[in-house]
From TrEMBL:
Protein name as it appears in the record: Glutaredoxin
Lineage: Bacteria, Pseudomonadati, Pseudomonadota, Gammaproteobacteria, Oceanospirillales
Annotated source species: Salinicola corii
Domain GST N-terminal: 22-105
Coiled coil segments of this chain: none
Amino acid sequence: MFSATPIERSAEAQADVDRACRDLALYHFMSCPFCQRVRHQIQRLALPIELRDIQRDPERRQELMAGGGRTMVPCLRIDHGDGEVEWMYESADINRYLARRFEGQ
Ligand SMILES: N[C@@H](CCC(=O)N[C@@H](CS)C(=O)NCC(=O)O)C(=O)O
């Protein structure tokens, strides 16, 4: 397992990030190497994103299938507000999205 040194932000900037992360959730499971890459990115960027383990929790698995259409992980659920929800698959896409949105913030 790799561990990342989380980036540091001012308390104010971290509070903004914490707030933004309430609209995100990662569907994953522990032994999935692609999920590990995304968890590493989440740790590095100090993002309090809720992790939803689809192996441990069958309801989360059903939720992923119903919402995203596949049970492949990792999948980042992004709540854009106004009822618009995006289900982002592909670890590389998720990591790019998180970096663009939170790197340097
Ligand atoms: N190219 C994908 C690969 C993801 C992948 O293969 N995930 C596996 C777990 S390690 C999976 O969910 N397989 C079950 C499925 O595809 O339904 C990525 O990088 O995210």
